[in-house]
Amino acid sequence: MKKLVCVLTFGIFGLTMFTGEYASEVKGQTKVVVKKKKWSHRKKGAVIGGVAGATTGAIVSRRKGRGAVVGGAVGAGAGYLIGKRKDRRGG
Q1: Is residue 29 part of a domain?
Q2: Domain range for residue 51?
Q3: How far is the C-alpha of 46 from the C-alpha of 84, rounded, in Å?
Q4: How far is it, in rounded angstroms, from Cα 58 to Cα 61?
Q5: Which end of the chain has a smaller Cβ tally under 10 Å, C or N?
Q6: Which residues pair with residue 11 across a beta bridge?
Q7: Alpha carbon 6 to chain centroid, angstroms
């Protein structure tokens, strides 16, 4: 069961990493390219850190629910801080 949860979580996590920057729509003969608004590093870091932390907390902890909540909160906070640093540096 743990392996299944791990595989599904990292599968979803992997799909979020490869989302495109541009969305294309075809209307008749012309092609319209709509540029999506990019996420800030803070937002990306918080989401990725939260998911990774919740997954790790659920796997490691004896109490799955509490471990997932604590791990998600810690991971989201750490990811936010790392993203904030990247935003300030311009990276």
Answers
A1: no
A2: 2-18+39-89
A3: 10
A4: 6
A5: N
A6: none
A7: 15
